[in-house]
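Researcher: Here's the sequence for the chain we discussed earlier.
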Amino acid sequence: MQEIDLFVAPDGQKHSEKPPATTGPPPSDASVAEQMRHKLRTAEGQAVYKLRKAVGEPVFGQIKEARGFRRFLLRGLGKLQAEWQMICATHNLLKLFRSGWSPQRA
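Model: Thanks. This is the structure I predict for it:
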């Protein structure tokens, strides 16, 4: 079984905030939340947590906020997958449209 190394902000750290840096192990009597706070204050923790902005999270934020998509309307795995594909397709088409992209004519 693989062990997963989590980097989860227990206090809902914002992307623009940078916590004070720290080194070394956390105190031995630290709670789980305090251990995670300490881990996120290390150079490695800050570098890994910073990647969240560049991966997939902005897309989900845009779909939730700009499109107002908060819950699925249909039930059942097949219908849910079709609904999600429709949401993704409209998101991508709007991005292409707003960028001014047009298909090349042969």
